[in-house]
Specification:
Blueprint: H1 3-11, H2 18-30, H3 35-48, H4 52-63, E1 79-83, H5 91-101, E2 106-110, H6 120-124, H7 136-146, E3 148-152, H8 159-170, H9 177-191, E4 195-202, H10 211-227, E5 231-238, E6 246-247, H11 249-260, H12 266-282, H13 288-300, H14 303-314, H15 320-323, E7 333-338, E8 343-348, H16 350-360, E9 376-379, E10 386-387, E11 392-398, H17 404-414, E12 415-418, E13 428-433, E14 439-440
Parallel strand pairs: 1-4, 2-3, 4-5
Antiparallel strand pairs: 5-13, 6-9, 7-11, 8-10, 8-12, 9-11, 13-14
Helix pairs in contact: 1-3, 2-4, 4-9, 4-10, 5-11, 5-12, 5-14, 9-10, 12-13, 16-17
Bound molecules: uracil.
Length: 442
């Protein structure tokens, strides 16, 4: 077999067989196939796409390229969740404790921030002392005892994806549905959970900018999960507007705690209840309506907040900042962004809002940049809100004063103010499940 022939086949729209995919991925991980040939293949895939069978085969081969976690020593069904990435998306910090409080098991490997999107591992590390790198024995023990643990991805999980993602990043081939689906699902399959809830983001802050594309990605991933024997559901959720009111690491942990204590923003609370309900449904706790009730109760009776604290303590974190979020060390500087005219916020470019928070220091400008845990944005006014000229619409926080002006410029440019109130936006667009792959009401 020759990589040259496989590139030619794909260039003309042919379907790669499982043995060809094995040859290609195995050779690439071993360093026997060069980046320039793989780059040509990625671009051919970008233009020609892949069949469902081919995407599932690619995922299977990528999942098998490194460690595959066996979670069977943890009794019961384990459920994972994956968001395709967003701004202000702190849902894992709320949803995993809710699911654990209702008897589900969440043994989760999460990522760090990527570009303008935040990552759960960075957010958790805002809790002083909390370790996201645990031995497998510790990870399993904490899930057995508390029902949840969240760690960083192990070094050898789907190494094919790590190498391919870095190449896609520099060859303009990230935004391909079969490549995104195989990248995400290879890691989910290798991480070992029995059930997977996918949160496919749609809008200005997401990879998917249109509903048909988001549905195609969601369906492709649900098919891959189900074909591999994992119960898989996808929700398509809004990321045209940042989620909740806080962006940044410690600010998002604070907002997650507020939400678990029943005083979170309405959009975040509603979305977390839907996500948690779907995870509980997947592990067989009942129908969606009943699982929504269970989730709301776990917030109301404090058991979900108790689970977050138990997990943080078990992973070495100082829970004092969770019981009193005022103990998070505040940023040295605060700057307000004001409305430029009277009217209503008619658009928020979520990606640019995320970039403003990266400029403040909440994300990484370079691969090895240090994160400023206190940096971030508190959005005082959001999509649809009435504003008056000169009124503060957001506070920006940073420890380096020199970053504020540029971040304010980026944030202001992300906000559009119009004369008329804009139409209401859905929070959840669709739910996709295997049976007939139909869209169901949420
Ligand atoms: N997240 C991933 O893990 N992979 C992609 O390709 C896109 C988002």
């Amino acid at each position: 077999m020759r990589m040259y022939d496989l590139i030619t086949k794909k260039k003309h729209g042919g379907e790669l067989s499982l043995s060809e995919l094995r040859y290609m991925i195995g050779g690439y991980v071993q360093g026997e196939i060069a980046d320039y040939q793989m780059a040509a293949m990625l671009m051919a895939i970008w233009f020609q796409g892949m069949t469902d069978a081919e995407t599932a085969g690619l995922t299977q081969v990528m999942a098998a390229s490194g460690d595959q976690v066996d979670l069977s020593p943890i009794p019961g069904l384990k459920v994972d969740k994956h968001s395709t990435g967003g701004v202000g998306d702190k849902t894992t910090l709320v949803v995993a404790p809710i699911v654990a409080a209702c008897g589900g098991k969440v043994a989760k490997m999460s990522g760090r921030g990527l570009g303008h999107t935040g990552g759960t591992v960075d957010k958790l590390e805002a809790i002083p002392g909390l370790r996201t790198s645990l031995s497998q024995a510790e990870f399993f023990r904490i899930v057995k005892e508390n029902g949840l643990a969240v760690v960083g991805q192990s070094g050898n999980l789907a190494p094919a994806d790590k190498k391919l993602y870095a190449l896609r990043d520099v060859t303009a081939t990230v935004d391909s549905i079969p490549l995104i689906a195989s990248s995400i699902m290879s890691k989910k399959l290798a991480a070992g959970s029995d059930c997977i809830l996918l949160d496919v983001k749609l809008g200005s802050g997401a990879f998917m900018k249109t509903l048909p594309d988001a549905e195609k990605l969601a369906r492709t991933m649900v098919n891959i999960g189900e074909a591999a024997g994992r119960r898989t559901v996808a929700l398509i959720t809004d990321m045209d507007v940042p989620l909740g009111n806080a962006i940044g690491n410690a600010p998002e942990v604070t907002e997650a705690v507020d939400t678990l204590r029943g005083r979170g923003p309405a959009d975040l609370t509603a979305e977390c209840i839907q996500l948690a309900a779907n995870m509980l449904y997947l592990v067989g706790k009942g129908d969606i309506a009943y699982c929504r009730e269970l989730s709301a109760q776990a917030i109301a009776n404090g058991t979900a907040f108790g689970k977050l604290c138990a997990m943080a303590a078990a992973q070495g974190g100082d829970t004092a900042v969770l019981y009193d979020t005022g103990r998070f060390v505040p940023a040295a500087h605060r700057f307000s962004v004001t409305a430029t005219q009277n009217g209503y916020i008619t658009h928020m470019n979520a990606e640019q809002c995320g970039i403003a928070s990266v400029v403040l220091g909440a994300g990484r400008e370079m691969k090895d940049s240090l994160i400023d845990m206190a940096a971030g944005i508190r959005m005082l006014k959001k999509y649809g809100d009435a504003v008056s000229e000169g009124e503060p619409i957001a506070w920006l926080y940073a420890n380096e004063a020199g970053k504020l002006a540029e971040a304010a410029r980026v944030y202001s440019a992300a906000i559009t103010i119009g004369r008329e109130p804009p139409p209401a936006r859905p929070l959840i667009y669709a739910r996709i499940e295997k049976e007939k792959n139909n869209k169901k009401p949420v």
